[in-house]
């Protein structure tokens, strides 16, 4: 039979970094020591109490389908978490448990996107957004963002880009690949702009919890250390209105990437629509993973996660100045997630060529800007600090040697 994939496949690109990863694995197989700074997932194992809860659930045969929107106890636990951590009331009835933030984004666009609708997305941004959107026949429209607005879209840009085909806006805070945050005022202003246009507003909060003290400079140093316990977490978009779609996940802060579990706060009128879609598209999220996640909010688990958050911050505080000393420029304020999005134009003409050369010559793997959009990708490269400080130090010394610094 003739090979005849759906037309939409023409617009779905692979992750370019996969090519690099394949080469990294080849080099590792040949015995080379590769430092993985391209990886977008925590290097820590899932906390023990979560793993134990999963094992107990499986032993107790809690392995049947749950309701399509998820276990009522877990939806209630997430609702309570919003109250405790952010002081906001989010009713459990508006919370859907999903197959990761990916599952939430699929359900949101399946519920909202019409063929030919345009959706505003920040560039650079998480690449899968535009491909998920395209799968549901929506069209991504990029808003180029840069250092002027800390790599986040502004209401003025949203207003300027909006046209009669625009259906909504998706932002992320903390963002990938930059780690930048939106303040509550900024979220509220973007929400107002969308309301004024009668459009949808989606906020991806997958890196929530992984936030660090803000720095007035662009990079952060240990000298600016603030005790973690005294920090106010990034504001949740739930505080800016109940018409906002808020996407979250157990993948990053809770360190459960492979469990495939996330959630979404849905504006009330759409809850039934998402439920119908979830019933048909996935039946339910993984049952053992949902029972495991019930242990995610226990004080013993949060203690483990907060200690790890401290470690992520120490890594960031080590890596940002070290990369700047080599000649990379950290132009996005890295206040969250575990990424440094660096301007490498003073060091190389094309970050994709640079990433390949760094891998071959130094064994340091990083993600070129090309994966995150078309807004000056050749000038940027993303380093993930998802590896421990001695390995980061080794990477810095290899990079220093490569650039002769
Ligand atoms: C900004 C952003 N959103 C969503 C996802 C999807 O994550 P998951 O499906 O594991 O929750 C990722 C993964 O890296 C991400 O960086």
Give structural notes.
With 405 residues, the protein is α/β, with parallel strands linked by helices. The chain has 12 helices and 13 strands. It has helices at residues 16-29, 48-59, 72-86, 100-112, 128-135, 155-161, 184-196, 271-281, 287-293, 299-326, 351-362, 389-403; strands at 35-36, 95-98, 118-123, 139-144, 166-172, 200-204, 245-249, 262-265, 329-330, 339-343, 364-365, 367-368, 380-384. α7 links the parallel β5 and β6 (200-204). The protein starts with 15 loop residues before the first helix and ends with a helix. The structure holds pyridoxal-5'-phosphate. Residues 40, 100-102, 126, 172, 176, 204, 206, 249, 251, 257, 262 line the site of pyridoxal-5'-phosphate. Its cofactor is pyridoxal 5'-phosphate. It comes from Dechloromonas hankyongensis. Belongs to the class-I pyridoxal-phosphate-dependent aminotransferase family. One of its GO terms (molecular function) is transaminase activity.
